[in-house]
Structures are given as C-alpha cells and as structure tokens.
C-alpha cells in the first residue's frame, strides 16, 4: 500500500515539474529529498525523460521530409526570380539609351526657337536705344575697370544728354533712377577699397616694419661717409605721387582718371635697391578714394574716417601679446608691426596733401611711445634670461634707430634702456651666483697638479699667476690654488664682457660705460661672489683642509684684483686715474672671505677638539700613584696626533693665520681641561686625579715645545697652558706658603692662579677628607699627620677667602 502511494506521489511531482516555472521548482524538489524514496524517484524521472526523447524523435521524423521539399521548391523559385530581374534591367537600359537621342533633339529644338524669338525682339529694341545702351555699357566697363572718375563723367553725360533724347522708355527711367544709386555705389566701392587697403596695411605692417628695420640695420653697417636716410623707403617716387595727387585735386585739372591704379608703376628702378612700403602695399586705393571723396565734396568725411580707423589700428598694434616676453620673436613681431604702422603713416604724410598732417602723426607717436615703454617695462620684468634681455636691448636700439631715421623722437626709449640696465645687472648677478656655486660645488679644494709645460701655460693664461719660485720648480709640480681660482677669474671677465655688450650702441661715453661696468662688477664681487664664498665656508661638513684652501684661493684672487682693473681699462679705454672713477672692491671682498674662513678654521678646530675632549673619562677619585706609573690619556694622545697632522696642512697658510690657529687650539685645550677640573658636577677630586691631569698637561706642553707651527718665539706657545700649569703645580707641590706670601706681586710664581679657582678646587679635595674624618673620629685622633694636614687646609681656605674678600673690597 505504501509503494502505491509513493508511486502516486512521484507521479504528481513529475507532473508538477513539467508544468511549473523553473524558478519555483525548489520546494517541489525539496519534498522529494524529505522522503526516503528519492532513488525510486530518480528512476521514474529517467524513464519520463526517455519517453519525452522518443516523442521528440518521432515528431522530427514525421515533419523532416516536408521541410526538405519546401527548401527545394524555394531554391527553384529563386533561380527563376534572378532571371526575371536580369531581363527587366536589360529592357530598362535599352529603353533609356533609345530615348536619349530623342530627348536631346527636343531640347535643342526648344532652345533654337527661344533664341530666334529673343534675337528678333532684341534687334528691334536696340535699334531705338543703341546710343543709351552704348553709353551705359561704357559706364559699366569703367565701373568694372574701377575707373571711378571717368565713370562719374559718363554718368553726368548720360544724365544730361543721352537719356533725354532716348524717349520715354522704361529702362531710361530706370537708368535715371539708378544714377544717384550709382554715385552712392561708386562712393561705397571706393570706401570698400579703402577698408581693404586698411586691412592690407594691417596685415602687411609686420612685413613693412621688418623691411624698414633691415634697411636701418644695413645703413648702420655702411661707412659713416655714406649717409642713407630711411626716407629711401618712400623714395622720389612717393614725392612724385604726392605731386600727382596735388595736381589732380585742383580745379580744371586732369585727375588720375584712366590710369589711377598705376600710381605705383615702377619708376627710377635703379634707386629702388631695397623694397619699401610701396612695394609691399598698393597705396592706390587710398589715393583714389581721397580723389573721389574730394570730387563728391566729402573730403572732410574721408579724412575723419581714415584717421579714426588708423587710431583704432594703432591701439591694436600697440597692444602686446600676453606671452610676448617668452621669446625674442614675440618682441620682434611687436616692433615690426609698430614700425610698419608708422612707416605707412609717414608715407601717407609725404604722398598726400592734408590727409594726415605732422601734428596728427606726432600725436600718434606720443601715444605709441608711452604704451611701448609701459609694455616693455611690464614684459621685460618677467624675463630672467640675460641673453634674451641683451637681444631685446639690441632689438630696441634697432627699433629706435629705425624710427629716429623717420624723424620720430626716441630719447625716452634710450632712457628706458638705461633703466633696463639695472634689471639686466640683477639677472646677470643671479646667473653668476649659480655659476659660482656650481664651480664651488665641483671644486675639490686641493692644489692643481701640473705635469707639463703646456698644462702650466694653460692655467697661467686663465689666471695671472706671478710666482718666480714656482716657475723655477721642475715638473711635475702643483699650483698653490685650486680649480676655483682660474674658473672664477674667467667668470669675472665673462661678466665684464656681458656688461660691456649691453652698454654698446646706447650712445654713452666711454666714461659712462666704464662707470657702469665697474659698479656692476663691484656688485658681483661684494654681493654675489662674497655670498658664494660665505656659502662655501659655512656649509656643513666643510673640513679644515677645504678652509685652508679657501684662504689660499682668496689670497690669490685678492692679488689678481689689479689685473681686473687693467682689464676693464683696456676694454673701455678709460684710465683708472680718471677723476671720479669707481674703484673695484675686490680686495675688501676677498679679505672678508679670508677672515671668515680663518674664523671658521678656529671655530671648526675648537669643535673638533671638543669632540676629542668629550671622550675624556677621568676617574676623579683615583688613588695616588707614582708619576712613573701614570700614562697619557688615550683621548689626549689621539687629539695631539690629530693636531700634528692638521697643522702640517697649514704650511701654505700665511704664518699669522697658522700661528693664531695653533695658539687658539692650545688655549682651548687648556681652558677645556680647566673647565673639566672645575665642573660643578664633579663634587670630589683626589690627588691621584690631579696627578693624571698633570701627566696629560705635560703631554700638551711637550706638543707646544715641539713648535707644530713655525714662527713662535721661544716658549710662547707654552703660555697657553700657564694658567692650568701653575694651578696643578700649586696643588701637586702643595706650595701654599709661597702662593699666599707672594700673592699680588708681579714676581709671584703662581701669578695666574685665581683665588676663586684655588678655593673651588681645594674644597673639592678637602671634602672627602672631611667626611672621612667625621666617620672615623676615634681613628683620626691617632693620625696626627692627618689632623695637621686638615688644620693646614682650614688655614689655607680661610686665607683664600680673605684674599677674595679683599679683592671685592
């Protein structure tokens, strides 16, 4: 019974799977796995799948033959359809070909009949109106040829003679109505040509200006006896044109008429070696328009319009591009346009009568000059390249010379160039600051080795070295200075050349040029080079050897200053003894740098000594030993070794510097040892510690007696340790009676021992003895020597305090 129910349930599930959406089949399958007969269900499911597969196969077999037959029929129909389509296309092509001939014949017949009718009508009309039409035709030809003055005369003849005789035809009335319009058209056409002319000169201003500047540049290179004026840009031909316009403007005179477009016909070609404004721009439209407006009685209108438009163009030309300062080409284009503008205006001024006058041109130039200077000041301030500033200066000079040749005042431009000289100097200083720093960074701060005569001559050609002793030495040998010296000297000369280049063509006297060069060179020396030397001296990790070489280098550069003076004198031809001549400050600059290097040597040497002294590790409570059993502290041995090697490098230094450094080092050692002894953190000191310090001091004194630096007289260097020596002798020899008896006398053996110092050290020595006596009162009673020593110490302390009190009193 259970199996029947299970089979029925499975049958229901299968039907539900077949009829249910696959998204909802989950609960149905879960019910199968909830039971225990899922294996039997799988068998039924497989049987059901096989049944469906058999049904699908039967259905496909039943319909397959019909499908194949349908495809076969369709293929047959397609072939027939293709044949039918080809026949239709062929028939259509033949029909089109056969019809073309007929259609062409019909069109030709139609055109012939229309032409016959039109010809008959035209012949009939022209027989009545031929004179009027001929006159009007002539008018049209003149209009097409842009011969506007003959056209105006034809209009007058047509209006007053031909049209009244022709009769009342409509075209005659139309012509009569068009005559005013034609006059307006001629006027507007002339104005259009003027606008085209204005546009043309606006476009060609750059080229005109470039040509004018080139000619000015050529004239500057000519012999001074050949004085060619830039007016040749206009030439005689322009003045002839002006005469022609003047004659044509008079009453009863013959206008430019039939050949007014030939104003620019080439004449005197042998005089036109360089193309001028008239070769680049056709000026005939402005002459023609001026004449037409004069004939029409509208000359004032024309003059006002021309001047107004040219003012607008002037404002556009004078407006520089925002990125003009980036390249020299931007400045050149700006100047070319301005020169082109004023060359055209000058040409118009000299070839027309009254269209523009001198006052108008001068007013434009004043406006332009203010805007040019303002623009150059603004844009040149963005420039940080000295080569670009120098090229810009040359371009401005050429620009000014070109316009000056046309009679325009340019003194303000040269004044502005002198202002730019300060900016140029600052830019040069920035570049040379970088150059000097690069030279210093690349320098190895060691003498230059030379192995051949050629190398030696190469360096002496770069730097004026005068050392007879060095000359006598055989190769290989070393120059006393490093690579920095010849490179820096060459850069100083390059800077002077750069300053000289800017001063050229500024119409300055030799004295002014000399003064400018010297002032700029002084700035380079006192500000730029001085700062670079300070940078090299003060930068981190600079060694004593490098500082020594800096001193040697600056000494040689200081000696070369008078050669720089001679160099400037030679290129400016101004003797140095000239009144009010500026002197070079190089000597003071190099002296200051040398003094800074010397101070840095002293500071660095003391800092190095401090590093060694930090390694000092004294046992301040060590027991007393015999002097033979004590050895010099390791740190002091290393310090003395370092000092010996360091002072051996000082042989090339001036004697005073080496001696000062040596004395400073010894004093610093003595002072530091004294500070160690009196350090407040050291509360107790034993006699044994003093003996060890005494041994170290003897080693220092031995170093001083060996004269590590030549030039000291006698035991002068020992004086650096005299304070510490007298103090230690006082305590190690316990010679208080002598000290107290002779205190204050010039012959005192312990003259350098201060009572404060002695008291402080004595209290540090006395403190352990005092504490020991308190702990061992009983034992102390039996040590008579200790009691006597303690009484002596108390007496010495008391007397020292009395001395201190007397000193304060």
From TrEMBL:
Pfam families listed in its UniProt record:
EXOC6_Sec15_N (PF20651), Sec15_C (PF04091)
Q: Which UniProt keywords apply?
A: Exocytosis, Transport
- Give the region (Disordered) as residue ranges: 237-269
What residues does the Exocyst complex subunit EXOC6/Sec15 C-terminal domain cover?
412-764
Listed GO cellular component terms? exocyst; plasma membrane
One Gene Ontology term from the biological process aspect of the record = intracellular protein transport
UniProt cross-references to Gene3D superfamilies, sorted A to Z: Dsl1p vesicle tethering complex, Tip20p subunit, domain D (1.20.58.670), Exocyst complex subunit Sec15 C-terminal domain, N-terminal subdomain (1.10.357.30)
InterPro entries reported for this sequence: EXOC6/Sec15, EXOC6/Sec15_C, EXOC6/Sec15_C_dom1, EXOC6_Sec15_N, EXOC6PINT-1/Sec15/Tip20_C_dom2
Q: Where is each Exocyst complex component EXOC6/Sec15 N-terminal domain found?
A: 44-213
Q: Member of which family? A: Belongs to the SEC15 family.
Q: What does this protein do?
A: Component of the exocyst complex involved in the docking of exocytic vesicles with fusion sites on the plasma membrane.
Protein name (Swiss-Prot/TrEMBL): Exocyst complex component
């Amino acid at each position: 019974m259970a199996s029947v129910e299970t089979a029925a349930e499975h049958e229901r599930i299968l039907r539900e799977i077949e009829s249910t959406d696959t998204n909802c089949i989950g609960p149905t399958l879960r019910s199968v796995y909830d039971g225990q007969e899922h294996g039997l269900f799988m068998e039924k499911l497989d049987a059901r799948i096989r049944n469906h597969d058999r049904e699908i196969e039967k259905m496909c077999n039943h319909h397959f033959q019909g499908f194949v037959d349908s495809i076969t029929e369709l293929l047959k129909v397609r072939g027939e359809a293709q044949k039918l389509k080809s026949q239709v296309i062929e028939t259509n092509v033949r029909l089109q070909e056969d019809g073309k001939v007929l259609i062409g014949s019909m069109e030709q017949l139609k055109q012939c009949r229309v032409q016959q009718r039109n010809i008959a009508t035209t012949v009939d009309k022209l027989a009545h109106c031929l004179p009027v039409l001929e006159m009007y035709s002539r008018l049209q030809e003149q209009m097409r040829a842009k011969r506007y003055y003959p056209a105006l005369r034809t209009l007058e003849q047509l209006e007053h003679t031909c049209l009244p005789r022709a009769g009342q035809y409509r075209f005659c009335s139309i012509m009569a109505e068009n005559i005013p319009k034609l006059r307006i058209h001629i006027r507007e056409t002339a104005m259009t040509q003027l606008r085209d002319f204005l546009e043309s000169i606006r476009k060609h201003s750059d080229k005109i200006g470039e040509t004018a500047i080139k000619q000015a540049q050529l004239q500057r290179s000519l012999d001074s006896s050949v004085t060619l004026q830039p007016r040749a840009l206009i030439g005689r031909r322009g003045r002839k044109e002006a005469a022609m316009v003047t004659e044509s403007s008079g009453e009863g005179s013959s206008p430019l008429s039939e050949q007014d477009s030939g104003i620019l016909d080439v004449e005197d070609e042998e005089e036109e070696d360089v193309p001028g404004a008239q070769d680049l721009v056709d000026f005939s439209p402005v002459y023609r328009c001026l004449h037409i407006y004069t004939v029409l009685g509208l000359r004032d209108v024309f003059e006002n319009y021309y001047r107004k438009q040219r003012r607008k163009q002037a404002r556009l030309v004078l407006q520089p591009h925002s990125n003009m300062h980036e390249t020299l080409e931007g400045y050149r284009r700006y100047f070319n346009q301005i020169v082109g503008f004023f060359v055209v205006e000058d040409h118009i001024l000299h070839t027309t009568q009254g269209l523009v006058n001198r006052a108008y041109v001068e007013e434009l130039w004043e406006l332009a000059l203010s805007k040019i200077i303002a623009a150059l000041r603004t844009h040149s301030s963005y420039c940080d390249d000295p080569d670009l500033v120098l090229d810009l200066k040359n371009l401005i000079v050429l620009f000014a010379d070109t316009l000056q040749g046309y009679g325009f005042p340019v003194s303000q431009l040269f004044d502005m160039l002198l202002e730019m000289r300060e900016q140029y100097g600052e830019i040069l200083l920035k570049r040379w600051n970088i150059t000097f720093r690069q030279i210093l960074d690349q320098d190895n701060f060691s003498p230059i080795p030379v192995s051949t005569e050629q190398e030696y001559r190469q360096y002496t050609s770069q730097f004026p070295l005068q050392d007879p002793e060095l000359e006598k030495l055989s190769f290989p040998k070393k120059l006393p200075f490093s690579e920095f010296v010849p490179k820096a000297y060459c850069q100083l000369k390059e800077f002077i050349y750069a300053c000289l280049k800017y001063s050229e063509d500024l119409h300055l006297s030799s004295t002014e040029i000399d003064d400018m060069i010297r002032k700029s060179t002084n700035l380079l020396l006192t500000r730029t080079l001085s700062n670079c030397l300070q940078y090299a001296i003060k930068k981190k990790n600079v060694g004593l050897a490098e500082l020594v070489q800096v001193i040697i280098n600056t000494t040689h550069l200081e000696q070369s200053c008078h050669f720089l003076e001679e160099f400037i004198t030679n290129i400016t031809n101004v003797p140095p003894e000239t009144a009010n001549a500026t002197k070079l400050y190089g000597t003071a600059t190099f002296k200051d740098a040398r003094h800074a290097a010397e101070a840095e040597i002293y500071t660095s040497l003391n800092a190095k000594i401090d590093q060694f002294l930090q390694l000092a590790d004294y046992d301040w409570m060590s027991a007393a030993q015999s002097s033979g059993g004590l050895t010099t502290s390791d740190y002091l041995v290393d310090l003395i070794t370092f000092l010996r090697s360091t002072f051996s490098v000082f042989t090339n230094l001036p004697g005073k510097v080496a001696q000062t450094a040596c004395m400073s080092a010894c004093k610093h050692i003595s002072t530091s040892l004294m500070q160690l002894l009196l350090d407040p953190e050291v509360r107790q000191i034993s006699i044994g510690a003093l003996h060890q310090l005494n041994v170290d001091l003897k080693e220092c004194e031995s170093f001083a007696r060996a004269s590590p630096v030549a030039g000291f007289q006698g035991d002068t260097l020992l004086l650096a340790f005299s304070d510490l020596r007298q103090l230690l002798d006082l305590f190690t020899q316990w010679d208080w009676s002598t000290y107290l008896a002779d205190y204050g006398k010039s012959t005192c053996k312990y003259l350098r021992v201060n009572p404060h110092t002695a008291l402080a050290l004595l209290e540090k020595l006395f403190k352990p003895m005092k504490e020991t006596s308190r702990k061992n009162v009983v034992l102390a009673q039996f040590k008579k020597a200790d009691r006597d020593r303690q009484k002596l110490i108390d007496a010495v302390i008391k007397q020292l305090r009395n001395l201190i009190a007397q000193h304060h009193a």
